[in-house]
């Protein structure tokens, strides 16, 4: 049974939010702001957004895991929330490099920062050495971005490419292996934190939407200045009650004698059940299904339709997981597996994407050469790294205490859009709501998390998020951004290609 939320004039709602990722705390923040009573539950000792962060050094520096970087063009609602809540962010240098693991970079670029823009330029020595390779990547990058803009401008094309995987699209349109296998798939795999197989199965339209707002737009990346732990605490500081290190055993609708549902019970381990007007499940879909008692057939079908992959992240100081030549080091090193490479995990059934983030380039530490004291050892952190899905493990002595993480990440296939539509139908059934990055169309990143949490809170309160109260919609404002920069992008691409052609011609004439 679907119940209607109460109107603005009714008494405050009593709402339980299960899960304190950015979706949950966004919903809790807005509900609290609207005067409702909110209880937030988290199974970790730290709030979900920063639950996997790692503290390093004696002065309390914290490394966010995942790194939580973003581009304003793809994250309008999250940026608006940060501004409204006073969350500080800062620009970072996002300069990826690509290499076959253990070899030299085959493609890399640097960014020249001008105000709010980052103008990319190639590392000339690599471009000349691999000129044909580089040319194919740049030419197809230009093709892919222009096609992405065309698709985003047409609802008919967007619907078409939601049913076509990105690998099918690349094959059909004749994109080069250099661009597809060696650039696009690993780059997007880093964005979505998933295997090559998972990237290949992504709907082409979803990949296009993301890259059209990020690739060659001139926009800079940003990061939460104080880290995810501080962001979480700031957003929930006014929430009525926040329960950490708490296990929710079940969520169950309270059915009246006439069959109606006006309340929902939440059972906490070791405590009597608590009754709420509404419950928001801001966990992963597979976790929500485990704790939801008496779920409807629709709820079961929808929640079981979303897929996940496990990923490993290690925070460490082992430079062997960086390029061999320090001159090739960049803030983000993305690796392609050699054809004959054997992973440490022989049972691996999927081609993971390994990448290393050089933490020193994306955040400021109080002391570059600080030390971490523990019961067993003292480690000197000169350079600090965050490596995802390592094909070879770092030296155990270099791993930061508590720095090994196993994380489950949502993936998207051409079947997922069906479940995005079905989520709408189960919202509010038996006074139970669902939010999380997985519930909305697009890549399951922080933007979706914020938007999903606020969407549910708006439906419950019949209120509008504050930055939209005057009719301003940051999502609408962002739609035209890629088109405005299209001429600039084409000019940049033309200059890059002409530069390569010129340098190659000179080299051939020598």
Brief summary of the model shown:
By secondary structure, this protein is of the alpha+beta class. It has 17 helices and 23 strands.
Q: Topology of this protein?
A:
Blueprint lengths: L13 E5 L3 H12 L3 E5 L12 E3 L4 E3 L5 E3 L4 H10 L3 E4 L3 E5 L4 E10 L2 E6 L1 H6 L1 H22 L2 H8 L3 H7 L4 H16 L3 H5 L3 H9 L8 E4 L2 H10 L4 E3 L4 E8 L5 E8 L5 E3 L1 E4 L3 H7 L5 H7 L3 E10 L15 E5 L18 E4 L12 E3 L4 E3 L4 E4 L10 E13 L4 H11 L5 E3 L11 H16 L12 H6 L1 H4 L1 H24 L1
Parallel strand pairs: 1-2, 1-15, 2-11, 7-17, 15-23
Antiparallel strand pairs: 3-4, 5-10, 6-10, 7-8, 8-9, 12-13, 13-14, 16-21, 16-22, 17-18, 18-21, 19-20
Helix pairs in contact: 1-14, 2-14, 4-7, 4-9, 4-17, 11-12, 12-13
Notes on the structure:
This protein is α+β, with helices and mostly antiparallel strands and 510 residues long. The protein is 35% helix and 23% strand. The protein has helices at residues 22-33, 76-85, 124-129, 131-152, 155-162, 166-172, 177-192, 196-200, 204-212, 227-236, 285-291, 297-303, 416-426, 446-461, 474-479, 481-484, 486-509; strands at 14-18, 37-41, 54-56, 61-63, 69-71, 89-92, 96-100, 105-114, 117-122, 221-224, 241-243, 248-255, 261-268, 274-276, 278-281, 307-316, 332-336, 355-358, 371-373, 378-380, 385-388, 399-411, 432-434. Strand 13 and strand 14 (274-276) form a beta hairpin. The protein is globular and about 75 Å long. Mean pLDDT is 85; it is low at 374-379, 476-485 and 506-510.
């Amino acid at each position: 049974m679907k119940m209607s939320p109460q109107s603005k004039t009714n008494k405050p709602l009593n709402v339980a939010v299960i899960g304190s990722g950015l979706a949950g705390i966004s919903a809790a923040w807005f509900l609290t702001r609207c005067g409702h009573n909110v209880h937030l539950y988290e199974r970790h000792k730290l709030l979900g957004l920063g639950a996997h962060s790692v503290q390093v050094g004696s002065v309390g520096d914290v490394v966010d895991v995942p790194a939580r970087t973003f581009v304003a063009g793809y994250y309008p609602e999250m940026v608006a929330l940060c501004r409204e809540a006073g969350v500080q962010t800062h620009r970072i240098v996002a300069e990826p490099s690509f290499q076959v693991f253990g070899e030299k970079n085959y493609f890399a670029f640097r960014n020249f920062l001008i105000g709010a823009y980052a103008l990319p330029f190639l590392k000339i020595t690599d471009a000349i050495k691999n000129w044909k390779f580089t040319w194919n990547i740049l030419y197809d990058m230009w093709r892919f971005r222009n096609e992405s803009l065309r698709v985003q401008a047409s609802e008919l094309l967007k619907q078409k490419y939601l049913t076509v995987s990105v690998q099918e699209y690349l094959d059909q349109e004749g994109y080069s292996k250099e661009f597809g296998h060696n650039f696009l798939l690993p780059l997007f795999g880093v964005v979505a934190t998933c295997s090559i197989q998972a990237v290949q199965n992504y709907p082409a339209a979803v990949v296009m939407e993301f890259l059209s707002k990020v690739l060659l737009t001139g926009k800079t990346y940003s990061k939460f200045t104080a880290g995810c732990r501080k962001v979480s605490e700031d957003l929930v500081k006014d929430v009525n009650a926040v329960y950490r290190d708490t296990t929710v055993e079940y969520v169950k609708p309270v059915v009246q004698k006439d069959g109606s549902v006006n309340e929902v019970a939440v059972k906490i381990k070791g405590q009597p059940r608590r009754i709420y007007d509404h419950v928001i499940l801001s966990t992963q879909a597979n976790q929500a299904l485990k704790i939801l008692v008496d779920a409807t057939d629709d709820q079961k079908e929808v929640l079981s339709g979303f897929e996940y992959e496990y990923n490993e992240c290690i925070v460490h100081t082992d430079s062997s997981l960086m390029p061999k030549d320090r001159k090739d080091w960049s803030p983000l090193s993305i690796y392609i597996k050699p054809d004959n490479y054997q992973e440490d995990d022989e049972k691996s059934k999927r081609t993971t994407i390994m990448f290393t983030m050089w933490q020193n380039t994306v955040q400021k530490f109080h002391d570059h050469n600080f030390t971490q004291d523990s019961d067993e050892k003292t480690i000197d952190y000169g350079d600090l790294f965050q490596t995802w899905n390592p094909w070879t493990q770092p030296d155990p002595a270099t791993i930061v205490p508590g720095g090994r993480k196993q994380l489950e990440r949502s993936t998207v296939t051409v079947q997922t859009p069906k479940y995005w539509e079905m989520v709408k139908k189960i919202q509010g059934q038996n006074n139970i709501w669902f939010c999380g990055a997985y519930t909305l169309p697009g890549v399951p990143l922080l933007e979706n998390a914020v938007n999903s949490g606020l969407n549910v809170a708006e439906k419950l309160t019949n209120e509008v998020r504050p930055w939209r109260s005057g009719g301003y919609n940051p999502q609408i404002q962002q739609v035209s951004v890629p088109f405005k920069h299209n001429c600039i992008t084409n000019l940049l691409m033309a200059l890059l290609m002409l530069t390569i052609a010129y340098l190659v011609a000179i080299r051939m004439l020598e």
